[in-house]
Amino acid sequence: MSDALDITLxxxxxxxxxxxxxxxxxxxxxxxxxxxxxxxxxMYAGGFHGWAQLVADGVKFAQKEDIVPAGADxxxxxxxxxxxxxxxxxxxxxxxxxxxxxxxxxxDAGIFFVLAVMGVGVLxxxxxxWASANKFSLLGGLRTAAQLLAYELPxxxxxxxxxxxxxxxxxxxxxEAFHWWWVPWxxxxxxxxxxxxxxxxxxxPFDMPVADSEIIFGAYTExxxxxxxxxxxxxxxxxxxxxxxTSVLFLGGWHGPFGADGLGWLWTLLKxxxxxxxxxxxxxxxxxLREDQLQKLAWTVLIPLALAQIxxxxxxxxxxxx
Length: 322
What we know:
By secondary structure, the protein is mostly helical. The protein has helices at residues 2-37, 53-63, 74-94, 110-121, 123-131, 135-166, 171-177, 182-200, 212-215, 225-250, 264-285, 291-321.
């Protein structure tokens, strides 16, 4: 009975985080962009600091008519938002937030699990682009496929490097093996992992699949109302997952300068929030890459850097063990 209660509480905690944190990231993005770009609108709704902006957005999406194009594959069209969103819920189950088994489920091959499931989330965009019966949507879906093929490899290689260093595929095991001198040693892999993750989430400057100035809004052009809101929620959930994974793999997770026993979860949260702020900052800082620039960055820069990081990790492991 106690095991069932423990599992229920863990799943409930993961579900609450999944429902709350992406909304916080979305609200924060409104405010950060408003400050950085001098926007008045997001700071006005509700009075103090535009506190009601998120509520207004939710009401707006709920009121919009749910339209399915006449020529669309109705079942696939309706299923795509769920396919885009739910994998991030599964990933959160395996991400540790603190010591003493503070994780939904500790998996022996946790790092492979989270990367594989994150890749499934991109299929939602492919399904939406294919099923919409719209040429702009189809083009956005094809761009999504090309981007996934290009950036999945450097992301996996960078994660493999830190797994080699720790000698385990378990996410809690990687954090327990972490030492602060890993940060300068694995920093290249961390940058590669984070950059490739942004590209998989189609976040600016890697938002070619949803380039509004060229293909309206890519795979999501025909979506309205709550179905479109689910795609936005999937994007913000992906930001939470990417930042949490980066903090776990490359920044020591719950390790902090004042010990991990009592404040471990706080250090994980703080690192995740700082990285999420960086994601928002990048959106308002850099222009969108061209398709050729996007592919060139992956194949000629990120993949060689990831391979070099793996080679360095192998050398360091041999030196340490000898």
